[in-house]
Amino acid sequence: MQKPSPEDQSPIASWSCKSSILSSMPAPTPKRRRFQFSLRTLLAGALLVALLASYIGTYYRLSRRGMAESGELFFYVPVGEIHGPEDLWKHHWLRVLFYPANQIDQEVLGGPAPVIDVTWELTSFFPHQCDSQCRQSVS
Fold first, then answer.
1. Which residues pair with 74 in a beta bridge?
2. How far apart are alpha carbons 62 and 59 in whole angstroms?
3. Could you read off the pLDDT of 24-63 as tens digits, one per residue?
4. How far apart, in whole angstroms, are the C-alpha atoms of residue 75 and residue 90?
5. Is 134 helix (H, G, I), strand (E, B) or coil?
6. Of 13, 36, 60, 115, which residue is least crowded by CB atoms under 10 Å?
7. How far apart are CA 72 and CA 66, in angstroms?
8. The pTM is what?
9. Domain boundaries in the chain?
């Protein structure tokens, strides 16, 4: 058996041989993954999903509580907290905020609409239509 010559054992010789073999082969194309997102995109998507879920959950909780209290038309705030027109600012603000969700609820699920406006002390203008309990509360 013959010993290999020192030229054949040198790392440079083996490297040049391998590089010539690799250069003659076509370069493999990297396999692209289908759904590749950056961390920033994933965090932004998770934030949007969380905000949308909290919006829908808050609308659902407030509207269903209001429907349970009053029936056909509802307030976003508890009826017990409303004592006059100055107490409706929160309801009006929530009505504007949840307008898109309420429209979807009305069209798709057939839900009721929130109260738009309340007329206070209308019975004082028509005393003949007011019963005795109402007259005592107005006086």
1. 114
2. 5
3. 667 677 777 677 878 899 999 999 999 999 999 999 999 9
4. 10
5. helix
6. 36
7. 10
8. 0.58
9. 59-115
